[in-house]
Design brief:
The chain is α+β, with helices and mostly antiparallel strands. It is built from 3 helices and 8 strands, in the order ααββββββββα.
Length: 171
């Protein structure tokens, strides 16, 4: 097997570091061994990929496939594609626990390959909120994979605070 490019190696290192810190802080339940075992580069034709679970995407959202588990019961996996040392596509999907019925069920952040049909609609980078239908996707500002991973681990969490009634003050 061909050796991974420097860019792919650097990306894998940065993702492992985000996940290692999250494991050390107790934000994910996975061990550092899971992180080291799963976050590796592999060749797929001309592309290099970092994919959790390895070798196939978890389109059916099965908990049986390898994934990272957050301390609050949410779980996620991701795939990143590089070509010629450049990131060309990624997908990060966070699934919420079944006992969070008021949420979207899952949220996915996608960066499609250049030339994808979503490109024509200005949606190469977008978010899906509980629906795989491309008509239900929302534009999203492109971020680095490490930034999206950090968002999934640390930021997209229940706070216990719910939207309150608007305050109306007399004129």
């Amino acid at each position: 097997m061909a050796k991974a490019s420097r860019a792919a190696q650097a990306l894998a290192r940065s993702l492992r570091e985000v996940l290692r810190r999250a494991s050390d802080e107790g934000r994910i339940d996975n061990s550092i061994d899971d992180v080291l075992k799963w976050v590796q580069t592999a060749r797929q034709g001309v592309d290099e990929v970092i994919e959790i679970p390895r070798g196939s995407r978890n389109f059916v959202r099965s908990r049986e496939a390898p994934h990272f588990r957050r301390d609050d019961g949410a779980w996620f996996d991701f795939a990143i594609t590089l070509r010629n040392g450049q990131i060309v596509a990624w997908s990060f999907e966070l699934r919420f626990p079944d006992d969070w019925p008021d949420g979207p069920g899952w949220i996915r952040f996608d960066l499609n390959h250049p030339g994808h049909a979503n490109d024509d609609r200005g949606l190469r980078c977008h978010i899906h909120l509980g629906s795989d239908d491309d008509g239900m996707s929302i534009p999203y500002e492109q971020r680095t994979p490490a930034e999206v991973l950090h968002l999934l681990i640390h930021d997209l969490r229940k706070t216990g605070r719910e939207r309150g009634s608007p305050v109306i003050t007399p004129a």
